[in-house]
Amino acid sequence: MSQFNSFRPGASCVEAIHRKPCSILGFGRAILCLGFALALASCGGSGSENTVALAPPLPPSAPSASSAPPPSPVAVAASTAGTLRTCGNEGEDACKLFEKDIFNASCDTGLNPHVERCGCILKGFRGNCLIRGFCNICRNSTRHRPGTADLYAASWAQWALRNQREQLAIDEPINWVTHLGTHNAFNSFSDGHQPRVLDLTNIVTGGILGTVKEILDAPNQFYSMTSQLDLGARILAIDAHWSGDILNNQENARLCHSITEGGVLLERTLCRNPSIDIDGDAFPGMRYFANGIKEIRNWLDGHPEAIVILDLENYVGCNRPHCDGDPAYVSDPLRTYLGDRILPRPGAGEYDKDQPLPSRAEMLAAGKRVVMIFNDKPRGTEDLGFSESETVSGFFKNWLQKVQDFATCVDNNPDPEVTEHVGPANTKRGQFTILVEDRTQQRGFNELLGLNFGVFSLDDLRGAARCNHTIVATDFMGSNLDGLQLGRRQDIPDFTRHEALVWSWKPGDRGQNGNCAMLEASSLRWVSADCTQSRRYVCAPRRSESGTSDRSKWNMREDRWKITTASGPWQGGPAACAAEFPFDPAKDDTAYVFSVPVNGYQNDILIKQNVAADLWLNYTDQAREGSWVIPRLNVNSPPIADAGPDQTIECGNNVVLNGSASHDADGDALTYTWTGPFGTVTGPVANVRLPAGVHVISLAVADGKGGVGTDSVTVTIGDASPPTLSVTLNPSVLSPPNHRLVPIVADVQASDQCDGTDVDIALVSIVISEPEREKDHKKDHEEADRHDPGKDRERRRDKGPDIQGADFGTGDLEFSLRAERKGGGPGRTYIVTYRATDSAGNAATSSATVFVPHDKDCDEDRPKHDATPASACAGGRDRGDGKRDSVSAR
């Protein structure tokens, strides 16, 4: 049996009373223990005021190098004490009877009360303590496994996984890095979750008794959450349900494994269902949620460089069916114990799934050490962490082991509810990818039915590392599952599955063979080597090694890897890559630098390039032994060009091109070159004129050291204004009204602010102010012949309409109008209209007039709007000698 299931020699009477009913201790010993407990209470044995005067002694177990002693309790306001749990946690006073419900012991799961000397009952005259009191403090029982933690801390698996996660990928977005973790982390054997039904059917051949398997309440883990973190878990998946007693009294948020779809009664019954383990916690599924969060906080206090992802499957106080209870019982513990360490959600708007999360280095610099992910947030916690729907690709049916295709790195679940298949190959830049192992009911009944929720094999885990799944949640992490699988019930550690997630270093290599990392051709694994050896170099596009924080061009699945033909010592890598693979915008628009893969997918792409010889990687601990880094190269960072936002401007106005937002990470002086329809101009700000239309203007920014950044801006030149148009007709007066057809010449002037004079002109109409006379003009001609019998006689014998030679719809500028008017009328006016149209279709019209007076004094006949001079319309005909002939008109 485990330490949890035994009454340890030397344990205090108070611990014995807590852990076992008095009836099984023996009547005499029970009476003695009860009397001692009463005496302890009478001297203030569990009052918190007695604990502050004396530092608590070490826990019964020897201190672990990997598990720091718990900190002192967090002070909380009395108004939220019911949601926070201020007693019973590690290093705190054991809870008194009225400070807990009937489902929980005086100490949290995995802890026992210990009688310790503290405070002072009687002081001397000088204030010195004469008689010290006793305190009942919660100390380790099965929460910490110091020996196992030390064993893992000394293992190669711990060294290699930590090296990958915390040193190699320190500048990578946290959601681009593989994290080993645990599924249903709270549901552990060490916290009292035990099989409720035994199945002895698995008797295998050879006479060997198979493992006793559990059907209901099968633990997902052997180790407590604290031990899981000690053993390298960096993602904990936990569940929160709302439950109380049979009458729904003493309701609280609980860490339990239950079902919500069957209704509240079933949900709470499954949480309450007791274990058959008679000397363990009777109701481990009713553990306070606040106690679990405080356990995580205590571990973080002892490990200041650790970052933990907490995936909360929440069913308390959220906006969904089967989600009841008071959200404060979830939100208060999170805000109080983890609040300022939780990475905040960026803004209240829609989550940008293409924006990567901060890196480990950035999170630690900001004091953020927890990434909170909710399936459903409790009401009022919109600012607290992220939702699965926004920061995790897919949903539970995409994540199970049994539906993974590790060749393509995408799930292949045939379930019709799965409408989108996801995985590292098609995940957004701002999302995690998750793999989940589910052994909750793998033992016993489900195996007989052939059901399988998905169990990771070692090859599966290697595939997960190769694809770079960023969250890998396992069951029974760190436990031996071979043969009889005794690790499900006993502290028998096994780190084989940890090792399967190491994609980089060669087993056994911890940097002891040299200070530079090398890809070994024979094993296709990394080894440490003497930096002076001659090897070829690995090159890739710029990343963290160039010192840039601009991740816009980084790719988690970077597949552009090159190997130099040149070889030399490790220090020659930067020069060799720069010489053989310089910046060439005509190829792939990137400069290659001495580099190293930072995840399993990149490493897999590299080793598939027929690595025939050992290769240097840009990874070293030369600066400080054991502190492996990707060194910052002396590489010129190209400037970042910014041509400004796109513009829409009305034609005729200057376009202001502004590239002053461009910048250079090295602080170099920059030159700016703009290229467009105008040719080339220079300077950070330029004023240009552009014709109507859409134009893409290019900006090139150079730093004088070979670095060039480019950007472009789209400028749309609009044309909403019509052209200007003026019309002048010559002659503008036809006198005398002798019925002749007189040639007219139009002078049309048009211009446009966009097209200049390149405007389409068209004669639109000629309108007569009076009805056209429908008769032969014979008598009129005879009358005219008597006055002018000369050579114009034949010219005047024209017939037909009063408007002739006008080609409407074209740019016709010459036509003829008849010098005709109605007898007894005020005279005739011809209104001639032209239209000008620019290339954008904008049009303007303008008109001019030709006037035919009634008689010799046209001033009297002329319309008021006609500005023709009186001399131009005086009666008679110009004889060429400055005098006019008098012509009578009818």
Counted by DSSP, the helix tally is 19
- Total number of beta strands: 37
Low-pLDDT runs: 1-67, 71-81, 196-216, 276-280, 442-448, 867-890
Instruction: Estimate percent helicity.
Output: 10-25%
What is the C-alpha radius of gyration, as a whole number of Å?
A: 46 Å
- End-to-end separation in angstroms reads 137 Å
Largest sheet: 9 strands, mixed
Residue fraction in strands: 15-25%
Averaged pLDDT, please?
81
The SS-based structural class is alpha+beta
**Form type:** elongated
Characterization of this structure:
By secondary structure, this protein is of the alpha+beta class. The chain contains 19 helices and 37 strands. Strands 3, 6, 7, 8, 9, 10, 11, 14 and 15 form a 9-stranded mixed β-sheet that branches. Strands 16, 17, 18, 19, 20 and 21 form a 6-stranded mixed β-sheet that branches. The termini are far apart.
Short description:
With 890 residues, the protein is of the alpha+beta class. Helix content is 17%, strand content 23%.
Draw up the topology in text.
Blueprint: H1 13-19, H2 27-42, H3 81-84, E1 111-123, E2 129-140, H4 146-153, H5 156-168, E3 179-182, E4 198-199, E5 213-214, H6 225-230, E6 235-243, E7 252-255, H7 264-272, E8 287-288, H8 289-302, E9 308-314, H9 328-338, H10 360-365, E10 370-374, E11 386-387, H11 388-391, H12 396-399, E12 404-405, E13 410-411, E14 434-436, H13 445-448, H14 458-467, E15 471-474, H15 496-500, E16 516-520, E17 525-529, E18 535-541, E19 562-568, H16 573-580, E20 592-594, H17 600-607, E21 615-620, E22 647-650, E23 655-658, E24 671-676, E25 679-682, E26 685-688, E27 693-702, E28 708-718, E29 724-730, E30 741-751, E31 760-768, H18 778-787, E32 803-804, E33 814-818, E34 827-837, E35 843-853, H19 858-861, E36 877-878, E37 884-885
Parallel strand pairs: 3-6, 3-15, 6-9, 9-10, 10-11, 14-15, 18-21, 22-28
Antiparallel strand pairs: 1-2, 4-5, 6-7, 7-8, 12-13, 16-17, 16-21, 18-19, 18-20, 23-26, 24-25, 24-27, 27-28, 29-30, 30-33, 31-34, 32-33, 34-35, 36-37
Helix pairs in contact: 1-2, 8-9
